[in-house]
TrEMBL record:
One Pfam assignment: FecR
Name of the protein in question: FecR domain-containing protein
Gene3D superfamilies: 2.60.120.1440, 3.55.50.30
Record's signal peptide: none
GO molecular function annotations of the record: sigma factor antagonist activity
Organism: Hymenobacter telluris
Boundaries of every FecR protein domain copy: 124-217
Length: 337
């Protein structure tokens, strides 16, 4: 049978206008190959979508009954006998056939076919290093220090998926047909085209998604959160708390220009930012020292300037040994000098 005749027979079957012999022929044809079965299922979906009152359960049951009647002997498949279609039946289904024929060429674009395994690239940054990438869809990603992005060489399938460990700023090109998804820890951030920052470092006190432009939705195992520009979704792994809040854009994306902005924050909470930017390790002598609060802005300044500011922030002393910075309580005598 020609392709259009197959469409006609399937349509007549779904309209319950086929004979038992035609049902048997169709069952044989569906069973001949997985491709035939897939074509039948796709045409069935299109048929049901065009009906005013679809009855998918009845259609599936009818198909099951037809397949159950099929007893295919060993050897070559039986050759179906072509029979003329009655004029009245043809007139009844002609509009549906026209619709199916018109979309027949496109149907395989709507239902993804098996593809080759996705080839991924992995980019990593060291401490003090940033990297800007342009992906295959022309989206631009700026990777923060000590971060990693895994992304496909070419995007295929219904989504554009990338995998982030650390922090990155995304400028996503618009594609309404294929949402862009960032997988970071237990979160999936999905967008069509927008600008946003994701921070998801391992063992960090917070995980966040900060939206600069457009709209995003963030999904975890149980919930979906919608963000509008200027909103940040913040999670505290230690407590399990997740909440939205307004964020300071200049502060969140300061790392892109080697800036650090601290606003009455504990040294323990900002130590990671200092370590990633300057490739050092901060070691606190005790919890009280780690609780010292810092209010300062560093605009691409050397590490020595940061250490001096730490010592001015409270009664702390900094001692450097190579890449390790030891922070301890300043002796009482030194405080009075």
């Amino acid at each position: 049978m020609e392709q259009e005749e197959i469409y006609l027979l399937v349509t007549r079957y779904l309209a319950r206008q086929t004979s038992s012999e035609e049902n048997e022929w169709l069952a044989v044809w569906v069973a001949l190959s997985p491709a035939n079965e897939q074509t039948f299922e796709q045409l069935k979906v299109l048929w049901e979508g065009s009906k005013t009152s679809p009855a998918p359960l009845e259609t599936a049951a009818a198909l099951h009954r037809v397949k159950a009647r099929l007893v295919q002997p060993a050897g070559p498949a039986p050759v179906p006998v072509r029979r003329p279609v009655k004029a009245r039946a043809y007139q009844l289904v002609l509009p549906a056939v026209a619709v199916l024929a018109s979309v027949g060429a496109a149907v395989f674009h709507w239902y993804p076919q098996p593809t080759e395994p996705v080839a991924y690239r992995v980019q990593r940054t060291a401490a003090g290093q940033k990297l800007t990438l342009q992906l295959a869809d022309h989206s631009v990603v700026t990777l923060a220090p000590q971060s990693q992005l895994r992304y496909p060489r070419q995007f295929g399938g219904p989504h554009r998926d990338v995998y982030l460990e650390g922090e990155a700023f995304f400028e996503v090109s618009k594609d309404a047909r294929r949402p862009f998804r960032v997988h970071s820890g237990s979160w999936v951030t999905q967008v069509l085209g927008t600008k946003f920052n994701v921070s998801a470092f391992r063992r960090a006190a917070h995980t966040s998604v900060s939206l600069v432009e457009g709209r995003v939705e963030v999904l975890d195992a149980h919930n979906k959160y919608l963000l509008t520009p200027g909103q940040q979704l913040l999670a505290e792994p230690a407590t399990g708390r997740v909440y939205r809040r307004v964020f300071n854009q200049a502060k969140v994306v300061a790392w892109k220009s080697n800036k650090l902005i601290f606003q009455n924050e504990k040294l323990a909470d900002v130590a990671g930012e200092i370590e990633r930017l300057y490739n050092v390790k901060l070691v606190f002598a005790d919890s009280a020292t780690a609780e010292t609060r810092l209010w300062a802005t560093f605009n691409n300044e050397p590490l020595t300037a940061v250490l001096e500011a730490l010592q001015l922030a409270g009664p702390v002393a900094c001692r450097r040994e190579g890449r390790v910075i030891y922070i301890s309580e300043r002796p009482a005598a030194a405080r009075n000098e």
